Amino acid sequence: MEEIETSLRELSSASIMELRAISKPNPIIEKTLQIVLSLKGFKNLNWATAKEFLGRKSIKIELK
């Protein structure tokens, strides 16, 4: 649990925006975000939905 909290603290807004700007992500990034979306209850597990999720102001709180 500590590793997750440390990782979230180190995750900057700039990094999130950089991810969001990618038009065709690496398959590992895309799969990871699909898993996160699935755990959060999203039905559409595609890159467009992931980008929308990455744009939320409360993303770090939601991930925690």
How are the elements arranged and paired?
Elements: H1 2-10, H2 13-21, H3 27-39, H4 47-54, H5 59-63
Helix pairs in contact: 2-4, 3-4
Attribute tags:
about 60 residues, mainly alpha, about 0% strand
Strand content: under 5%
- Biggest sheet, open or closed, and with what strands and sense? none
The residue fraction in helices comes out at 55-70%
Quickly count the domains: 1
Any overview of this molecule?
- This protein is an all-alpha fold and 64 residues long.
- It has one domain.
- It has 5 helices and no strands.
- Helix 2 packs antiparallel against helix 4 and helix 3 crosses helix 4.
- The longest helix is centred in the middle third of the chain and has 13 residues.
- The protein is globular, with a radius of gyration of 11 Å.
Task: Summarize this entry quickly.
The chain is mainly alpha-helical. 69% of the residues lie in helices and 0% in strands.
